[in-house]
Each structure stands twice: as structure tokens, then as C-alpha cells.
Amino acid sequence: MTRTKKRSLFSILRRWLVRIVLIWLIITLSLVLVMRWFNPPTTTFMLQRMYSQEHESIEIKHEWRDFTEIAPSLAMSVIASEDQKFADHWGFDVAAIEQVLEDRQAGKKMRGASTISQQLAKNLFLWPGRSWVRKGLEVYFTGAIEVMIPKRRILELYLNVAEFGDGIYGAEAAAQTIFSVPAESLNPHQSALLAARLPAPKSYDIQPPSDYMQQRARWIEQQVKQLGGEGYLESF
């Protein structure tokens, strides 16, 4: 193959690569932007749970509720439990990430450092598991979400797609299934129990709650008070 033909082939491959990247950006960024106004009927996590061969088939419980139809105590409990810097960061809690890296180097037990925006990106667009590819996509989608979607909408989306139990997604399904009340009627302690369950919704039982879950819920309620209570929600 002559040098001219090699250059020609390289130019063709480069043009196709640029086109593929542009198409990828247009599609993925459009998907994120749509979430600013339209409520997603499902997520990749819900679909994975429905069709996973690792678990028995299960009926997904999910019912959308607008932000004003969800008890503010649940919104605050989730922030207090999962992401206390939610109003201030741009998708990533740098200090928490640095602490995780330090703990890893010291051989300490790993703990999560994902923000609500990161968890929303995973729930909407990605899949369970750990890999560098998935982590890279998580960073990409998280950045896009923070740039294109207001904080209040991010929180509304997360409260409606987060898994609160096996096959139970969103605040309304969780409130109805676990406490037999609508999401807007959740009291502060019920809200704290639901938020306490988020790290491992299939493992942590809150009906009735264990001593550990009661302790965790009380800690969350205290953190809510330290954040300023429901007034914190007015900061974004």
C-alpha cells in the first residue's frame, strides 16, 4: 500500500470516527436534555431488574409524583443521608472522593462518595457493576445532568427513580408499599427510614426496622436539622 493510499485510508477512518463521536454526543446529550421537561417512564436499572436472569421475575412498582407531591421531609432525608453538599457542588463531591482515595491507600473499608447527581446518572442511563468504562460514562452523564438540568429537577428525578426496595422505585411506590401512605404524607421518621435504606434497599429491612436502621434514621433526622430543615430546599 502506497503512502498516499495510507493517508487516504487514515483520513476516511478519522472522518468516520468524528462522525460517530458527534452522533454519540447528539444522542446522549439530547437524552439528558429531554429529562429537564419530560418524566422518564422507566430507567436502565428498572429494565435490568425486570429482565435480569440472576433474580426471579418481579413486578416493578413505580408511580411518578411531582416534587410538590412528595413530602419535603423525604427530600431532606435523602440529601442528609446521601449528599449533604448537593446544593453547592457541580456533580462531584471532591472532598469525599479524596477521602475515599486516602482510605483506600490506608487499607480501610471503602465507602461510597457518589452524589445524588451521580446516582441519578447511573439509574437513568447505566447499569450496576464496577468498571472503568462505566465510571467514565458516569462522569460524562453526571456532568451533562448538572449543566442541563436545574438542581430541584435533579432531586425530583432522583426521588422518583431511586430504588427503595426490591422492585420498588420512587417515593410514591415506596410510601404506598412500605407505609401505606402517599408520598406527600410521609412523616420525618418514615422519610428518614426510607433514606437510610438507599445504600442497600434489598438488604436493609425497615418493616419493622432493625435497631441499626432505627439508629441510622435518627442520625439522618439530626443531620436534617443541622442542614436547616426544609428551608435548605429553598437554596436551589
Brief description of this entry?
This protein is mainly alpha-helical and 236 residues long. 58% of the residues lie in helices and 3% in strands.
Describe what you observe in this structure.
With 236 residues, the chain is an all-alpha fold. It is built from ten helices and three strands; from the N terminus they run H-H-E-H-H-H-H-H-E-E-H-H-H. The protein has helices at residues 3-34, 44-51, 72-82, 94-105, 116-125, 132-148, 151-161, 171-179, 188-197, 211-227; strands at 61-62, 163-165, 168-169. The longest helix is centred in the N-terminal third of the chain and has 32 residues, at 3-34. It starts with a helix and ends in a 9-residue tail after the last helix.
Termini separation: 61 Å
How many helices? Answer: 10
Global structural class: mainly alpha
- In total, the number of strands is 3
Radius of gyration: 20 Å
Kindly report the average pLDDT value: 89
Order of helices and strands: HHEHHHHHEEHHH
Strand content: under 5%
Largest beta sheet, briefly?
3 strands, mixed
Poorly predicted segments: none
Give the helix level as a range of percent: 55-70%
Strand order, sheet with most strands: 1-3-2
Approximate shape:
elongated
